[in-house]
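Ticket #4471: structure output looks truncated?

Reporter: J.K.
Steps to reproduce: submitted the chain below (81 residues) through the standard prediction queue, then opened the result file.
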Amino acid sequence: MIKVIVLSNQILITQIEETGSELGEPDCKLVNPFCVNETGTLTPWLADITTQSEFMIHSDKILTIAEPNTKLLERYQKVTD
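Returned output as attached by the reporter:
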């Protein structure tokens, strides 16, 4: 499931999976998240500090989740292939 995710200071496009977890543990898995920059370019999330492509976060850190438009989805699929 590829979605646009709005965090407090970033907009990401990513594959997202809800995971079962213990109370207080991260409950969302982000796979291949990319930042959507102001110019519409995509850059790998946290690429300057890690080579990971999967991240666990708390769902309460997500402000909203939306469907990407066709143009953004195509751009994301191109960079993740």
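Triage note (M.O.): checked the attachment and the full token line is present. The chain has a mean pLDDT of 93.
Status: closed, working as intended.
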